[in-house]
Amino acid sequence: MTLNLGFGNRHNRSMFSHNRSFDEGVKQKGIRAGQATIVVAQDGSGDAETIQEGIDLIPDGGGVVYVKEGTYNLTAKIEITKSNVSIVGVGKATAIKITTGISAIYASAKHGLLIENLFIDGDDSLTSKGIEIQNCNESRIQNNWISDCEFGIEVVSEGEFTNVEGNWIKSCKYGIFSETLDNCLILGNTLISNTSNGIHLDDADNCIVKSNHSFSNVDGIYLKASDNNIVIGNRCWSNTGYGINISDNTCDKTIISGNQCLGNITGAIQDLGTNTLPNGAMGTTNLALDDLNIIA
Prior knowledge:
CATH class: Mainly Beta
CATH topology: Pectate Lyase C-like
Strand order of the largest sheet: 1-2-5-8-11-14-17-20-23-26
Number of helices: 2
Largest sheet: 10 strands, parallel
Oligomer: single chain
CATH architecture: 3 Solenoid
Distance between the termini: 74 Å
């Protein structure tokens, strides 16, 4: 008697489950339109050949697009056209290569998004964008690798409750750029050798910037016209400007605590804000700031 363990023919196996046999490939693409789980693959084992096609196949209520390993060369942006969409790669082996002047992944007024485990590679002109989301609430951008873009991650235009966590961003202009947003968490990102600021917040209120590593940028963490933010437990070192820069008096009620700012060329921490806690004026000679942060 032959014992059937239910694994099926070895040629039909895949690390991503889906409803196609391996040799069916994408030649019958579209038969799974409307399914909430779509696999994108370049080896014929998925439901779609491109990430955009995968997004287009899922229903209006959302779903997940799993992107297998390979290099996906873009000549146009990938646009998330529905809310509650997840785009999930397998790590740095899922490489998205961008041409000049486009965004790799773009969404506007779509909510509940997850963008995870992708490698996004721009070009030396730094005119492309890695991940750009506008007016998108309750979303997560996490565990991605991004390099050689104008903006590694850009979160703008009234977005709320979006978390940017665990991303590795190198050799962009801005690492993480956030403008006009509220109640966001920027946590545990690594920002290396970006030609402007590692983390740049402009008109961003009620956010937590925590446990990030910002190395060899201009300012490690930069705040402008931003109120009620907490900057805590970050490591900012060897930046050409400040480790942490509260850049003007339109920044109100910022908490700066438990940061390590070492070897930054212009200075460790600049505080030009109002009602900053600990209660300080500016610069690295303020005893309150010095007592709660390591700056030398």
